[in-house]
Amino acid sequence: MDAHMKEMESLLCLDSDEVRMIGIWGPSGIGKTTIARVLYSQFSENFELSIFMENIKELMYTRPMCSDEYNAKIQLQKQFLSQIINHKDMELPHLGVAQDRLNDKRVLIVLDSIDQSIQLDAIAKETRWFGHGSRIIITTQDQKLLKAHGINHIYKVEFPSAYEAYQMFCIYAFGQNFPNDGFEELAWQVTKLLGHLPLGLRVMGSHFRGMSRHEWVNALPRLKIRLDASIQSILKFSYDALCEEDKDLFLHIACLFNNLEMVGVEDYLALSFLDVRQGFHLLAEKSLINLKFLSTKYTRIEMHNLLVQLGRDIVRHKPGHQSICEPGKRQFLVDARDICEILIDNTPLGNLKRMYLSESKHLKVLPDLSTATNLEDLNLFKCSSLPELPSSIGNATNLRNLNLEMCTSLVELPSSMGSLYKLKRLGLQGCSKLEELPTNINLESLTYLDLTDCLLIKSFPEISTNIKDLRLRKTAIKEVPSTIKSWSQLRKLEMSYSENLKELPHALDIITSLYFNDTEMQEIPQWVKEISHLQTLMLEGCKRLITLPQLSYSLSKIHVRNCESLERLNFSFENNPERAVVLVNCFKLNKEAREFIQTSSTSAILPSTEVPTNFTYRANGSSIMVNLNHTPLSTTLRFRACVLLDKKVDNDTDEAADRETTVVFLNITEKGKIGVDVSWRPGRCFLVPPILREHLLTFQFEADVTSNKLLFSFNVEGNQAVIKECGVFQL
Fold this sequence. Notes:
Layout: H1 2-12, E1 20-25, H2 32-43, E2 49-53, H3 56-61, H4 69-84, H5 97-102, E3 107-114, H6 117-123, E4 135-140, H7 143-148, E5 153-156, H8 162-174, H9 184-194, H10 198-208, H11 213-226, H12 231-240, H13 244-257, H14 262-269, H15 276-285, E6 290-295, E7 298-302, H16 305-316, H17 336-344, E8 354-356, E9 377-379, E10 401-403, E11 425-427, E12 448-450, E13 469-471, E14 492-496, H18 505-508, E15 513-516, E16 536-540, E17 547-548, E18 557-561, E19 568-569, E20 580-584, H19 591-600, E21 603-607, E22 617-620, E23 623-627, E24 635-647, E25 662-670, E26 680-681, E27 686-688, E28 695-705, E29 709-717, E30 721-730
Parallel strand pairs: 1-4, 1-5, 2-3, 3-4, 8-9, 9-10, 10-11, 11-12, 12-13, 13-14, 14-15, 15-16, 16-18, 17-19, 18-20, 20-21
Antiparallel strand pairs: 6-7, 21-28, 22-30, 23-29, 24-28, 24-30, 25-27, 25-29, 26-28
Domain NB-ARC: 9-176
Domain C-JID: 606-727
EC number: 3.2.2.6
């Protein structure tokens, strides 16, 4: 990677004020995106605005089939601008808007996986669209496309040399860039068979990781017969080595679940697989997928496009029937034309198990589901034009998961849903026009119901007595029926504040999360202390609130946002293992409150202009080398780290409060160990709400350390904030 960076820095010529477009060209799987990501990570903070647009060709394939080329360009430019300037609902009357908005801004733009000229015409047609010193990086497999666009600064990603390929393979097979004793010749033989494509080296290196020498020797003859130097045969070899259940999980991800959230996918597949989580980790260990942590509650499953294509080809050619000619008989349908053929021809849907139509914003009518008796999952997330569900959904009696989140035109649900006795999860978050749920039904299997942001819902949802997780924040619900006392499975109840609650002692014994959004409230009502199991307190826009008093001792999480008068924290935590305090845009906090947060919380976000002096190791930027006083011998050490963040966009108004959340990641490596990360716990990333100016993120963790020199690297995802400083000290 160092050699790639040296070449790219020369092409970027960052000291020059000219606007420059640079192409990164090479075959799929050679590492173009990886190089672009490293560049973006290193240099994005030096630009006024920056964006990494992933896999743009997928956006072209998912555009409405009836759209012409001009409208396709409009949609691409709209998506580009909405991300780079954080304006989600902007209108584009013409294609000149990008130039109008960005011609005085120094920007860094990475356009990944470009495969059509209209993509460049829509987003970066000319250098004069951007301010002095801007850099536009394009990754593509098509050199002619770059030349046709007048891009002469092109970096061709060459295949690694034989020795470099050998080192790459060893990193994934042995965790170091050389083989273990006794494996030298075997590693050379396998590398020669694989060729020099980095993706193949990574996948096959992971395949051999942990095998004994005897297993390597036994595998070589089969390798020599099966591999023909094509990447497809290399990847297929790794697929064929999986057990049948892991093969099936691989195909599910390739066809349905790529780039989706891991826990949700795990829930969907729990009844079909013995141990989905273990399957994910096994595929990740084999480098067939990547599990990317994006937030404390969101890990994304990522699969390389070559592996996705492999999986879909396997399904298309699966033996046993003429699945190529008869798409209705396939295990999965992923091609839009095949799906349209099935739905338009009224093909019986008895084989249908999962239907994903998320973000189909023009969808107004669902097909007849009368024959969909085996349908288990129906995902209609962000189908914003859908006003209703067909009554035939009642025939889908095996339905387990129904996602209607952000269906903002949905007005009502059919009473036939009462027949969905196996439904476990019902997501209705953001259905802002929905006024009520069907009455007199009992969905006996329902354990999860989310009505967050269903602003018009007034009646408490008594549609199941077996619910475990009930989310009613930002609804108009003000009453909790006494019958809830008999809901023995209920473990989580989120409510919005209402004075009515103080008259409902049965509710005060059950509520676990309470949300306030009262601009006139000057103090937390005394009766809130009586909520005996309160775990999370959320306050937003309570502009006259000055003090947070002592509340329930079960409280472990406090999230406060845009409470501009808040000064004092007159409470203490009990011995809860997790003590999280988020105080965003609360700039009047006094010194005592800040010190309390620093000493009492396990993680915190609060306004600050500097890294505290008690952090032994401090540095400008996003990384720091820590030299421990002694050399640990495979021991667990505890640390506290901090990151000083500042808003990226120069905008000091309340509009910043509506921008996207920033995600902060930590990566720890030991000096001299290439490609090997240090394990740390809780091993998650941190969500930072939109900030108006500088804030400090601090958190405690423990790490398994075998060296006295550790490199702590912090990264952010999102365009809302940048890292100014960081710090670490050993506890």
